[in-house]
Amino acid sequence: MTRITQLLLATTVVFATACGNTADGAKEDTKNAAEATSEAASSAGAAMDAAGETADVKSALMADATVDAGDINVDTNKDTKTVTLNGSVKSEAQKARAEVVAKTKAPEYTVVNNLVVK
């Protein structure tokens, strides 16, 4: 083989190998991007679920005539399945009722009642 033919053959082998590696790399990058997208969508879904639970509990508290919910903050953590009540109410009865309402609206969640009676 002439020197030019050998050089062309070597170049062809290098390019063919590089294209194969690039294709494998592209497949791996696509797989990684798909996994990251799936994880992000799952996190967004969990946040939306938690926001929904928060809204449901807060709405139920506001609808309950025996609870002054104006100073009650509801926080929901979907990962730990926890609803936390923060803020203040006017009596122990309102504090207890707020907890019952939260447990009724989010039965699969643990309710942490941090309400203060003022």
TrEMBL record:
The keyword Signal is annotated on this UniProt entry: yes
TM region positions: none
Keywords: Signal
Residue ranges of domain BON in the record: 49-118
Highest taxon in the source lineage: Bacteria
The protein's name in its UniProt record: BON domain-containing protein
InterPro entries: BON_dom
Keyword Signal: yes
Signal sequence range: 1-18
